[in-house]
Amino acid sequence: MSTDPFSRLYCLRHFHAARPLPGQRDFDRPLDARGQAQAQEIASKIISGAIRFSTVFVSPSVRTMETAARIGIAADDPRIVISPNLYEAPAEAYFDLLRGGVPDGSLIVGHNPGMEEFIFALCPNAGRHAELQARGLATGGFAGIDVPEGQDTFAAGSGQLTSLFMPPRP
């Protein structure tokens, strides 16, 4: 967590999910082998960076819940907040979730395109990240964002993308 007068927010796009089986809803798609490998890689980055999450907002889809579990945040963890509005959500839903501020060190586990659009809207410097520009926020993409504390916390243009890790392409 940051020690400056900033709130640190982390965004994690769910890990790679399996293609839907015939008749299976998109909501119910689990992680596949590639997603499980991404989980190991991201979990090691989180552990090596000594990152601690204060609150974890998670879409209720199977793949986002599995993503949270793979980084050590089980569905019954007291820090978890299941947020149905994050499933198939536009960027505005992410801003709505954060209105009024959130604890420093919060994590959102969500989906594209809304999460990627949220990062670009929140962080004017996001467009300067070549990999983010080229690939978009890939599955397993993990971003750290600083937002100054105060009345306009989490307003469009108020954040700075301070770290970005994306798993390698297959």
From TrEMBL:
Lineage: Bacteria, Pseudomonadati, Pseudomonadota, Alphaproteobacteria, Hyphomicrobiales
Name listed for the protein in its UniProt record: Phosphohistidine phosphatase
InterPro entries in the cross-refs: His_Pase_superF_clade-1, His_PPase_superfam
Signal peptide interval: none
SUPFAM superfamilies: Phosphoglycerate mutase-like (SSF53254)
